[in-house]
Model the fold of this input.
Amino acid sequence: MIGYVTLGTNRYDEAAKFYDELFAVIGAGRILESDRFIAWGTGMTSPALSVTMPHNGEPATVGNGVMVALAMNSPEKVDAIHAKALELGGTDEGAPGPRGEQFYAGYFRDLDGNKLNAFCMTGG
Done:
């Protein structure tokens, strides 16, 4: 259902490096880019995540209550992407683990403070 999600950044070059390395963990890469915008995904018809410097020239800010959820196909990938985010300078917002009977997730913030989670559905 989600086509793509865009996050604002004040640290364009650093955000590019963060997401290049983060998404390499799950086999995703750059699919579109310009001098102010980069989108990552696994193909042009798959959901994507992008970062951009705000078009209006104002500083990017983090929306309170806004979170991007990244679907994984195993708890091991959730663990791996969460660990990679922290290794790259992101901050922990909730260690990977079960949340209820069928949901496994780990929460983190990127270099600009945007909140993301990696999750998968499990049996239960």
Remarks:
- The mean pLDDT is 95.
- The longest strand covers residues 91-98.
- The CA atoms of residues 102 and 123 lie 6 Å apart.
- Helices lie at 12-24, 75-87.
